[in-house]
Amino acid sequence: MSKAVRGIYAAAVSPFREDGSLDAAKLVEYCQYLTTKGGCDGVAPTGTTGEGNSISFRQKMELAGAFAEAGFDPARAIFGTGACATQDAIDLSKAALDAGFPNVLVLPPFYYKNPSDEGLYRYFAQLIERVGDDRLRVYLYHFPQMSATPIPVDVAVRLKKEFGPVVAGLKDSSGDMAQALAFADATGGVDGDFDVYPSSEAFLFEGLDGGCAGIISGSTNAFANYVQKARADGPESEAFALVKDARAIASKYPLMAAMKQMEAWRTGDASWTRMAPPLVPLSNEQKTNLKADVEGLKASAAAA
User: Fold this and answer.
1) Torsion angles phi and psi, residue 208, rounded to 5
2) Domain spans of the chain?
3) Contact between residue 105 and residue 81 where contact means Cβ atoms under 8 Å apart
4) pLDDT tier at 304, thresholds 50, 70, 90
5) Most CB atoms within 10 A, among 6, 78, 122, 126?
6) pLDDT tens, position by position, 91-148
7) Taking a C-beta distance cutoff of 8 angstroms, is the pair 219, 250 a contact?
8) Quick one: the chain helix, strand, coil %, rounded to 5?
9) Beta carbons within 10 angstroms of residue 296's beta carbon
10) Domain 7-233 carries which CATH code?
11) Nearest alpha carbon to residue 167 among 156, 178, 176, 177
């Protein structure tokens, strides 16, 4: 078992059965696609884009085992295990570790608002101490717009100093690149063994230059191959301009529903459009507009 490889990650969308339950086998197969033909270096299942907080605790407890049975590389998966109840986060993280997947993405406890820095520190510290295994690798999950519970830079620094390699990094979904760079600067970033992942591929080069480890993005469910070409060609390339265009297209729509719609088109499997309430699929108008936008992007890529 090892720390997650650095690079381009998809915050993987989740397939649901008709009864609303997670289709774990289908998710494993999808993540295998993402890390091969899909162009991703790794995946982050059951995060926000994966509707992780709409998936039952029981199903999430079993998920890493399904990945293990399929022979999925543990260094290419970071499972979302954060929860409001500290014990739930502990149990989910331990289940992933027991299945051979040490890398976990942990939201702060997001029900009680405006917690103290000490309270946030104790949540993560208690998780690490009660899992009690030096193989664990925790990625803090900073997403204040969704959780309403930001992770202060000082708390990240304190956790890293206290727990060393167990605190492996942070996903910054704030959309504020200055915030991501502040985390990297304060912790030493990749040079300090603290891997910061901004949430937009449009920030790829700015992040890499500032000590970040890559990106974990929802839109790389569909556009990771564009990002890999841009990474090879450089920040001034036509390929990177295409990446920014792709990200702009994704931002025009409800991201999770749009990525699921694109996977439904890719596979011919309409069941991919199922969403867990309260989220809903794209409207017919949104589908038509997304189709036109994506076709235009493909035409630009072909002409580049």
Assistant:
1) -60, -40
2) 7-233
3) yes
4) confident
5) 78
6) 999 999 999 999 999 999 999 999 999 999 999 999 999 999 999 999 999 999 999 9
7) yes
8) 55, 10, 35
9) 12
10) 3.20.20.70
11) 156
Model's pTM, two decimal places? 0.96
Provide the token pair at 52. 């992780």
Helix (H) or strand (E) holding 8: strand 7-10
Whether residue 45 is predicted with pLDDT greater than 90 in this model: the reply is: yes
Q: Taking a C-beta distance cutoff of 8 angstroms, is the pair 239, 222 a contact? A: no
pLDDT, one tens digit per residue, over 242-276 is 999 999 999 999 999 999 999 999 999 999 999 99
| Residue in the structure block whose two tokens are 């995060």 | 47
For 205-239, what is each residue's pLDDT tens digit? 999 999 999 999 999 999 999 999 999 999 999 99
Question: Which residues, including other chains, have CB under 8 Å from residue 226's CB and lie 6 or more apart?
Answer: 39, 239, 242, 243, 246, 301
Residue type present at position 2: S
* pLDDT of residue 19 exceeding 90: yes
**Tokens at 186, concatenated:** 């304060």
Tokens 């509707």, residue located? 51
| Number of neighbours of residue 276 by Cβ within 10 angstroms | 17
Signed CA dihedral, 16, 87, 138, 67: sign only: negative
Burial class, 73, CB count within 10 angstroms (exposed 0-12 / middle 13-18 / buried 19+): middle
